[in-house]
Amino acid sequence: MTESTRRARAQASTADTAGTGGGLAVEIRDLDISFSIDGGEVHAVRGVSLDVHPGEVLAIVGESGSGKTVTARSILGLLPETATTRGAVILDGTDVVGLSGERLREIRGTKAAMIFQEPSTALNPVFTVGWQLAEGLRAHGSYSKKQARAKAIEMLERVGIPEPARRVDDYPHQFSGGQKQRIVIAMALALDPSVLLADEPTTALDVTVQAEILDLLRRLRDETGTAIVLITHNMGVVADLADRVAVMLNGEVVETAPVAQLFAAPQHEYTKRLLAAVPRVQLVDRPLPASADATATPVVEAKGLVIEYPGRLGSPTFRAVHGIDFSIRPGEVLGLVGESGSGKTTIGRAIAGLTPVAGGSLRVLDTEMNGVRERAFRKRRRELGFVFQDPATSFNPLLTIAQCVAEPLIVHGGARDAADARDKVDELLEAVQLPKAYGDRFPHELSGGQRQRASLARALALDPKLLVADEPTSALDVSVQARVLDLFAELQDRFGFATLFITHDLAVVDMLAHRVIVLHKGRIAEEGPTAEVLGDPQDPYTRRLIASLPVPDPVVQAERREAWRAQQG
Amino acid sequence: MARRPVTARSRFERLPIVHQLRQSVGLQRGMLVAGLVLTAIFVLCALLAPWLAPYSYSQLSDADGANFGAQQPPSAEHLLGTTVGGYDVLSRVIWGAQTALMVVVVAIAMSVVFGIVLGLVSGYLGGWVDKALVVVADAIYAFPTLLLAIVVAIAINNGQSGLWPGILAAAASITVVFIPQYFRVVRAEVVRVKSEAFVESAQVIGASTPRIMFRHVLRNSTRTLPLIVTLNASEAIATLAALGFLGFGIQPTVAAEWGFDLNKSISDVAAGIWWTAIPPGIAIVLTILGITLIGESLNDLADPRLRARRRSKASQTPADAVASHQPTAQEFMGEVQ
Predict the structure, then answer these.
(1) Cα dist. A67→A31, A231, A474, B26 in Å?
(2) Nearest CB neighbour to B316, from listed A43, A67, A379
(3) Which fold has domain A3-111+194-277?
(4) Do B318 and A43 touch (CB under 8 A)?
(5) What is the CATH number of domain B18-57+82-263+273-309?
(6) Would you say the pTM of this structure is higher than 0.90?
């Protein structure tokens, strides 16, 4: 099946709303799901109707809490006991709603299967992957041990695991994250299901691995004709893989359209806002602020910086950062980009004095961090702000927002207690566009984006010279992320603090940073002005990283995909 | 799950026990109510003993100077008869509640304070202090608890036994047994909380170590303590009764003590005298049962997986439910704040 015919069919199918069920892989009609909770009932999905055609990739997008995962899970009957389901979910001619345990079990795996978000928790660590693949086969039919093993090897080969005959006896921990996700996909496909549910299949993976998994999913769909229901919040992934997109908001489907049409001409107000909020790489050359000239003393200067983590008893120390040199000049935003394990968070923590420096020199605000004593550095801490990745855990849950934001003011002698600092706190909250009244709320009473803004207010309380932001927006929804980043750019412009912005998202770096450092396995792969590094990468790793990034535009992404394939060889 | 309700509920409904009572349904509610009633009776007896009890705990003769007589069967003057020592059984049972309450309160207070401080220091600072304290706590665990309590009781009261020395000795011996429990629970929580981002955030701000320990770590580490306190309270009563039964408790002339009375009634049981043994025994059983029921139901209610729920008929939209639980969890797009 070629790309164009499939597109045409997907397009035609949207027009067909008669809902006869004939030839559909999944048909959802007026699905209503509610959950009983302490305060009563939550109506999580309201009157959702969706069709999935064989061989089609339907992406369900929406923000956290929009009901996209619940809708998809209802196809497999994978809902908790507290859920009440009404409506019909017809899976290959069988209505799944109200099916009992035994009948559900027969359907799971054979008619529909699921790929989970976190591959390392979806596999049982104490059994070999071959055993786990065979387990699914034996649950649904009579396979001899030998046959099951042969089939397992065949499946591993299909999902691109090298040397499948040998690796079938390996345990999950012997595989990398991307390989584990391949194995999870192999398990899901073992019984040729007509529908594959993929719940954020690449969210836990690095960009380069994500591109490989997306490619695998597309190839498998073309080979087997399995329909895929893809749940994701990443519009780049949607543009890359989906044929048709359903947009969910507060438990309702607000728009369903073929992918090209949705990106080109979104109809619903919410879809428009969602697409507008997606960060894109635009390659703007940002001039350095005047304060950041080369002669000024850098706020951070690393020379041959080495950071190690002590190993457990008997195992050697782990070197996270291998002798790197860099500096941050006053008023400059330095983006630190890399995949998981590249050492980017470690560097941020070392600058804040949370991780000791093992070798080389790291000067932060005129203090040598190699062998520094906390007592000596404490005085300089007022010039350093830190924004943590997860705003949910970075506030003391028992203190109000005002008390949390007042902490630095109290610690550094500016105020006696939280009430004394309240004027300054109100000012700070206003600077991050939070109403003053929010100061009296507790952290859990704020949304993720509001908490992250409060976190910015706390970091900026003492007017620092340096801010370290460790993935500050990766736990937020796209639209919220856009607002936090805008606010950040505005504050940086206004107060002129130097920033180390740590992220894995190249588009976010592109929005903010003056300069970028690309880290790869604890070494600097490339360094330079943002537009130069992202627009004309010299290092092969940087090139691969940028080529792997899915662009939220189906047409452009199709071209990029071809280029990426050519690069892969 | 202590979520703050936003709807204007009265403060009364948010009080610890009241909140749980409203939250519970069915069997769990029955258990909780039964526990509360039994415990309320126990506490009332303890507080109102001077007025409730017909005689004093150490009274041997009535106002006219006539002796009660030993092992008298129940009668109008002595509703539950008298003991072998000539005391009124009913009065001793009621006064015994007072002794039990005092010992439990002192014992729990001492073990909670010591346990929390040691657990906090040990868990947060780590290093050799931590290692030493953990070893000591483990060593205490290895002792039979009653033996340890007896040793401490002998060491403290030294044969003397006034009311307060007696109570303190009993409380101290129970404390020694309980400190390791509180120590371990608090330490484990502190170690977990220590690595949370908000503690690191306080470190980055430059807060001093005592400030981080007491302002940020401590209050976040004591959430499970009320449950252990209730469960331990019943264990404390059992330990006190056991000490009294073995003769390391409080003398009958300074306070009434259920375990002591039970001990003295051993020979009565064989002689067919039931009224000296059964009332203090029932008092012990009901008190422990009451407190344990409260502890167990609080434990179940605190865990959302164990908590039974009522199905409500009126369905809400997600927005309503979110609004009533996490007021602003959903930040809608475009809403400028």
Answers:
(1) 11, 10, 20, 31
(2) A43
(3) Rossmann fold (3.40.50)
(4) yes
(5) 1.10.3720.10
(6) no
